[in-house]
Amino acid sequence: MSFTVAIDGPAAAGKGTISKAVAAEFGFGHLDTGLLYRAVGRKVLHGASAIEAAETLTTEDLTADDLRTPEVAQAASKVAVIAEVRAALVDFQRAFARRAGGAVLDGRDIGTVICPKAPVKLYVTASAEVRAERRWKELTGNGHEAALEDVLADVVARDARDRERAEAPLVAAEDAVHIDTSDLTIDEAVAAACAAVRAKQGSLNFE
Ligand code: C5P
Asked: How far does the centroid of ligand 1 lie from the alpha carbon of residue 77, in Å?
C-alpha cells in the first residue's frame, strides 16, 4: 500500500532533516526533489541546455558531490522556473510517491502539484535569518567559505524566485499542517511531523 507524505517549504527550513527522520521512523522511502533541480542546474553550469538536461537526467547526475554548493542552488532555482524542466521531472517524482511501503517527498510543490492528494502535507518554515544561519553553519562546517550576509542574500533571492514564478510557485497547500521551526529543536520539529503522520495513519487505518 502506498502512503505519501508531502513536505514543502522555503530553503533551509529543516525539510531535509525532518523528511529523513520521518522516513526512518515509519520505514518510508525518501526523495529530496531539490536534488533533481540541483542536478539540472549543475549541468547548465557545465554548458548543457536546461530542458535537455532535465529530459536526460541519470541517477549518476543525482550523486555528483558538488550538488550542495550555493552556486548550484541558485542555478537550480533558475532552471526551476522553466515549465518544460518541471514537466520532465513529474513522472519520476509521482512514481516514487506511489512506491509500496510509503514515501516522503520534500520540495516546493509536492503538496500542491506533484501529490495534491497526499494524505499528509506539511509546510515547514522558519524566519529567513534562522534559515540563513543554519545554512551558513552547514556550509562552513563542510569546509566552504561563506559570509553570513551573503548566505542570507542567497536564501532571500532564492525564496523570491521560488515564490514568484508562474509555474508551481512555492505556496502552502490549503490542507497543509504548518510547522515553524524557528524556535524548535530538531527533536521537537521531528516530533511535530511524526505526530501529523501518525494522526493521519490512525484515521486511515494504515498498517
Ligand atoms: O530544496 P533545495 O534547496 O535543494 O532546492 C533547490 C531549488 O530547486 C529550489 O530553490 C527550487 O527553486 C527548486 N525546487 C523546486 N521544486 C521542488 C524542489 C526544488 O522548484 N520540488
From this structure: 6
Q: Which three cell numbers stand for residue 187?
A: 527533536
pLDDT at 201 (0 to 100): 86
The CA distance from 97 to 191, in Å, is 22
pLDDT digits (tens, 9 = 90+) for 118-167: 999 999 999 999 999 999 999 899 888 899 999 999 999 999 999 999 99
Q: With 80 as the cut, is the pLDDT of residue 1 above it?
A: no
CA 108–ligand 1 middle distance (angstroms)? 6
Determine if ligand 1 sits within 6 Å of the CB of residue 33: yes
Domain span at 48: 4-199
Q: Is residue 159 part of a domain?
A: yes
In a domain? residue 206? no
Residue 10 within any structural domain of the chain = yes
Statement: residue 207 has pLDDT above 60: no
| Residue 204 covered by a domain | no
CA of 205 to the centre of ligand 1 (A): 32
Q: Whose CA is nearest to atom 21 of ligand 1?
A: 107
The finding on whether 162 has its CB within 6 A of some atom of ligand 1 is: yes
Give the CATH number, domain containing residue 64. Answer: 3.40.50.300
The alpha carbon of 115 and the centre of ligand 1 are apart by a number of angstroms equal to 16
Single pTM value for the model: 0.95
Q: How many domains would you assign to the chain?
A: 1
